[in-house]
Hints:
This protein is mostly helical. It contains eleven helices and four strands; from the N terminus they run H-H-H-H-H-H-H-H-H-H-E-H-E-E-E. Helix 4 runs parallel beside helix 6, helix 8 runs antiparallel to helix 9 and helix 9 runs antiparallel to helix 10.
Amino acid sequence: MSLPAFINIPEAEQAGELRSFLREKGADISETMSEEGLELDLEAVIDNVGVVWKLPDVNEIEGVFNSILSLLIYFPQETMEKLVPKFSEHITKSGTAEQSYIRIKILNSLFHGVGETNPLAYHVYTGMLRVAAKYENIDQVVTDLDKVKKWTIQWELNRDRINNVYRLLYEGLKESKHGDEASVVMVELLGTYTEDNASQARDEANRCIVSTIAGPQVYLFDHLLTLRPVKFLEGERIHDNQPLTDSRFTSRSTICHTSC
Length: 260
């Protein structure tokens, strides 16, 4: 994906123009370029780019951030490893609810800019999911579970980060009223736990069972019973103060609604 630049000039001049622009808009940033190189200049820009969210023109906001993106992907991987998470965190936490659409759009451009197979894409994708969950706009984000599973392999994530991806994806789908898809993701999340750490998934397992039982129909969901975090809850009171036993959650077939 090509990234439109703020202005079509050499990288160092572009960073200088960004410094001047931010200072003009009220940022406490020097117009003097760093003697230690472009990396520190861009880091200073990222640290002070918050003033841009006050601009009335959304196209101008997008243009500034696209300029930063075009500089970010200019750097080698080792430099991006410092700046991409920092920039993603800023986009995730800054701006208003009305600007959530453009925030996800900027993060999506960065996602494709660094490359979807790049391990740094993890930081960008989870940022998109956080914004989507908070403002109920998951439709802007890729949620195909097969594709997400492939990414977690390509990014070479450890178990905690894989869990984080699935947890955030679940929250984004749930908050955006995609209940069926959210349930599938929750099952995938629970399936990542082993016998050694199943107790850590108590909250997720509880939510999974309660949301299924609370559905308006009877579900055939045998495979939940094989998930270690669910088995860990056997005998506990989790719904209507009733224990999770074979009478409520049988090994043969049914997860019942409250009325069964």
